[in-house]
């Protein structure tokens, strides 16, 4: 269980940065080279590589090097545990909010009467 928790922590840490989320979003469409991934960002190639290293260490992306070109892709199912955790937490929270809404509706003062 501890290893599972560490894996989940790693995924959330990796996705906690906007640049890394943008890279994952781009890779969700198709695999891309480092230079393709770096193009939209105003940062150095080594900085983009650092972001990719974090994503790869978390298991969200994988890379393959052919010659001098390194290509990255999203690992299928890598976010499944994070999605399940969010769903597990979200459902009880939504039920609580639904009950609060029903309580407030039940105890709301009557609407003011309109005068002619």
Per-chain topology:
Elements: H1 2-15, H2 18-29, E1 32-33, H3 34-38, H4 45-58, E2 61-66, E3 69-74, H5 80-106
Antiparallel strand pairs: 1-3, 2-3
Helix pairs in contact: 1-4, 2-4
Strand line-up across the major sheet:
1-3-2
Number of helices: 5
- Kindly provide the radius of gyration, computed on alpha-carbon positions and rounded to a whole number of angstroms: 22 Å
Strand content: 5-15%
- The overall average pLDDT, rounded, is 89
Helix content estimate? 55-70%
Count the beta strands.
Answer: 3
Q: Per the principal axes of the C-alpha atoms, what is the gross shape?
A: elongated
Low-confidence residue ranges: none
The N- and C-terminal alpha carbons lie at a distance of 67 Å
Helix-strand pattern, N to C?
HHEHHEEH
Q: Can you describe this structure?
A:
- α1 (2-15) runs antiparallel to α4 (45-58).
- The chain has 5 helices and 3 strands.
- It is an alpha+beta fold.
- The radius of gyration is 22 Å and the shape is elongated.
Summarize the entry for a quick read.
This protein is an alpha+beta fold.
What keyword list fits this structure?
alpha+beta; 3-stranded antiparallel β-sheet; 116 residues
């Amino acid at each position: 269980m501890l290893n599972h928790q560490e894996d989940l922590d790693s995924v959330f840490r990796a996705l906690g940065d906007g640049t890394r989320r943008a890279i994952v979003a781009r890779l969700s469409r198709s695999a891309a080279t480092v230079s393709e991934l770096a193009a939209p960002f105003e940062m150095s190639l080594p900085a983009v590589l650092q972001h990719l290293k974090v994503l790869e260490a978390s298991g969200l992306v994988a890379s393959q090097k052919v010659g001098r070109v390194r290509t990255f892709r999203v690992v299928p199912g890598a976010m499944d545990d994070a999605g399940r955790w969010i769903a597990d937490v979200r459902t009880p929270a939504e039920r609580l909010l639904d009950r609060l809404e029903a309580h407030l509706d039940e105890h709301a003062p009557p609407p003011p009467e309109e005068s002619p």
